């Protein structure tokens, strides 16, 4: 997918795209998807200090600190593309700063809903095994506070996998029900890492939503 140089970019194309990872914390998570998106799109890939295998930062000790990290990057309207835990931050920003979040993409996230009641499995044990040196606060924090998803004004693309035990399709369906201007796409056989293993398919949906 490439941009045409024959016309000026639309406001949506010119908006900065902020890519937020999940609890794995690496800015490279979105690289496979980004490789299929127009090079001309301005992209910022965040990493989460202290999470996964990322170097720690004494200033980052909570979800609120990560929220502030992203918020500082938003001085003009942006598009947010977020995975899993990053989707909680993105949804909060969309609610708190509706004039600055132009479009929203959420993949396999929780976004403040009751995950247990929707059949989600606990991810903490596997996370500790995979990232033994990650900051403890990420597994010790209480469940994300409920969010007023009905207040999200940004057109929202929801992408889920139908084989994801961490964030089942039922979660995506709940967000679809509650977010006013949302659409849901489901990856057949997709797990929690669907944005990596099904990057071309996911990128196509994201491109159509953000163009």
Please explain how this structure is put together.
With 211 residues, the protein is of the alpha/beta class. The chain has one domain: Rossmann fold (3-Layer(aba) Sandwich). The protein is 31% helix and 16% strand. It has nine helices and six strands; from the N terminus they run αβαβαβαβααβαβαα. Strands 2-1-3-4-5-6 form a six-stranded parallel sheet, sandwiched between helices. The longest helix has 12 residues. The N and C termini lie close together (11 Å). The N terminus is likely disordered.
The quaternary structure here is: single chain
End-to-end span in angstroms? 11 Å
3D shape:
globular
**SSE string:** HEHEHEHEHHEHEHH
Radius of gyration: 16 Å
Strand content: 15-25%
Strand order of the largest sheet: 2-1-3-4-5-6
How would you classify the helix and strand content by structural class? alpha/beta
Q: What's the level 1 CATH class?
A: Alpha Beta
Biggest beta-sheet profile: 6 strands, parallel
Number of strands: 6
CATH superfamily: Alpha/Beta hydrolase fold, catalytic domain
**Fold-level CATH name:** Rossmann fold
Low-confidence stretches: 1-9
Number of helices: 9
Give the overall pLDDT as a whole number. Answer: 92
């Amino acid at each position: 997918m490439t941009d045409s140089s024959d016309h000026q970019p639309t406001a949506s194309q010119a908006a900065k795209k902020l890519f937020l990872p999940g609890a794995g914390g690496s800015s490279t998570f979105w690289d496979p998807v980004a490789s299929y998106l127009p090079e001309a799109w301005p992209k910022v890939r965040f990493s989460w200090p202290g999470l996964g295998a990322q170097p720690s930062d004494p200033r980052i000790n909570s979800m609120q600190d990560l929220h502030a990290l992203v918020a500082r990057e938003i001085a003009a309207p942006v598009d947010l593309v977020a995975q899993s835990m990053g989707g909680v931050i993105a949804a909060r920003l969309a609610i708190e700063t509706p004039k600055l979040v132009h479009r929203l993409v959420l993949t396999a996230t929780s976004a403040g809903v009751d995950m247990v009641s929707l059949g989600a499995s606990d991810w903490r044990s596997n996370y500790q095994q995979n990232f033994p040196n990650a900051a403890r606060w990420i597994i010790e924090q209480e469940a994300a506070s409920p969010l007023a998803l009905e207040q999200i004004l940004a057109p929202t693309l929801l992408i889920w996998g139908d084989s994801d035990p961490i964030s089942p399709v039922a979660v995506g369906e709940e967000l679809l029900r509650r977010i006013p201007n949302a659409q849901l796409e489901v990856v057949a056989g997709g797990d929690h890492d669907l944005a990596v293993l099904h990057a071309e398919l996911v990128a196509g949906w994201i491109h159509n939503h953000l163009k």
